[in-house]
Amino acid sequence: HMINTFEQQWPDEVDLIVYTENCTPSITKSNVTCIDLIANSKHCKRFIKRHKDNPEANGGQGPHNQGIWSPKKHFKWQGLRFSYKVFSIQHAVQNIDTEWIIWVDADTLTHSAITLAFLDSVCPKDSMVTHLGRGDKYHSECGWVGYNLQNSQTQDFVQDFAEMYINDTMFNEKEWHDSYLFDVVRK
After folding, report:
1. 8 A C-beta contact, residue 81 and residue 179
2. Which of 85, 105, 141, 171 is at 20 to 30 A from 132, Cα to Cα?
3. What is the pTM of this model?
4. Residue 68: which of 171, 169, 167 has the closest Cα?
């Protein structure tokens, strides 16, 4: 549904790169392509191998989240689940030649026409990254994030973000999902 609404509502001048894992989505427009994340990200492949059978990295209780873990909020510790997103962003930033990478979650539907003028307004040239903040009491909403590849610090920001998963330092943080860790790096 995300791809379908993109094809209907986004300008043809904007490309959509879909990162997939063991699926082939239906695509009808030439500005939409797919990249197999597992085949193209050695870091993702290694992270999955290290943690696919690690209950703690999959939302369970363990030594790194003891005392704060909650069964009702287990998503906070699903590092494996959210690593796919971070490794997709890292791959895109390192390999796609464009001014901006805009991450849009797969469960996002575009209900209205997107214009180039709108994209320019939410991706100002003087910003390194744009996102949907929610104040200081809760982590950012990272279902939509823009990364300015014209900014010299963006590559470092994304690399620092990915290295929390690459080096397993995410376990040193209070939560291990992408939105929380995005804020750790941002702050």
Report:
1. no
2. 171
3. 0.95
4. 171
